[in-house]
Design goal:
Elements (H helix, E strand, L loop, with lengths): L3 H14 L6 H14 L4 H18 L2 H15 L5 H17 L3 H17 L3 H17 L3 H17 L3 H18 L2 H17 L3 H18 L2 H17 L3 H18 L2 H7 L1
Length: 269
């Protein structure tokens, strides 16, 4: 479900698109529309991302082509099309490497690593996460540091290396605090909650999940609300506070249906 501001933004862009000639400005507009749709309608995000990519290639607008490929790769994975997501992320990376776009290389390394991790290729994922941090550091892009630390933490977590995960999550948390990025603080707290839960520090996990959930509701994406909210609901269930657990689970299920995220629907159910 779109917010009023998102709906207005998309409507304004679509109106302007009707009278815009085929140039770099149209590519930028198409990519903005794709990015706006990524929050709630991944199918439309892919459609507009492809239009942006094809036009950018046609007029030789390199940065626009990268953004188009990136929008497609970042959206199509939520439609359950893993192989296509990998192909589009690789296409975006090829563009960034060929044109020495360091920040974009960092983004593409991260995105490709995420997909490799999803397919079980942890070795390849770790390689690209390290490459992403290296690319971000070349330009002192601190927001990128967070993504690399957080994603590396997720990799260690999946390997049950909870101390390695904790170290990376804490680095990400400190980075988010330094930049006053509330949405990323919420994400970090949720991840730290996962680690402390597995280290049998359940009271700490409960506090982390709760704070993450309330921060996410104010400042984060719907997917991050689902991540922390589902964990918070599970903690209520463990504590036999079934009414609170049920209320949260139903809220999370409603959100994932809104954003049509097949992976999260399965997770919540």
């Amino acid at each position: 479900m779109f917010s009023i501001s998102q709906t207005n933004e998309i409507s304004e862009l679509l109106d302007k698109l009707k009278i815009q000639k085929e140039d770099s400005t149209m590519v930028i507009m198409l990519n903005k529309i794709a990015s706006a749709y990524r929050e709630n309608d991944n199918q439309k995000a892919v459609e507009y991302g492809k239009q942006a990519y094809e036009l950018a290639v046609k007029i030789n607008y390199v940065k626009g082509a990268w953004y188009g490929a990136n929008n497609i790769g970042s959206s199509i994975k939520f439609l359950g099309k893993t192989e296509e997501a990998i192909q589009w992320n690789q296409k975006a990376l090829d563009i960034a490497e060929k044109n020495n776009m360091e920040i974009e290389k960092g983004h593409s390394y991260n995105n490709l690593a995420l997909m490799l991790k999803f397919t079980g290729n942890n070795k390849g994922a770790r390689y690209y996460y390290e490459k992403s941090l290296e690319a971000y550091k070349k330009t002192n892009y601190k927001r990128g540091y967070y993504s690399s630390y957080n994603n590396m933490g997720n990799l260690f977590y999946d390997e049950a290396n909870y101390y390695g995960a904790y170290h990376n999550y804490i680095e990400g948390y400190k980075n988010a605090e330094e930049r006053k990025d509330t949405a990323r603080i919420a994400q970090s707290l949720n991840n730290i909650g996962n680690v402390t839960y597995n280290l049998r520090r359940k009271d700490s996990a409960f506090l982390c999940y709760g704070k993450a959930y309330f921060l996410a509701k104010q400042h984060a994406s719907k997917r991050e609300i689902v991540n922390s909210g589902t964990n918070f609901a599970n903690m209520f269930f463990e504590r036999k506070q079934f009414d609170k657990a049920e209320k949260l689970f139903l809220e999370m299920l409603s959100i994932v249906r809104e954003i049509n995220d097949q992976h999260e629907i399965t997770h919540v159910l």
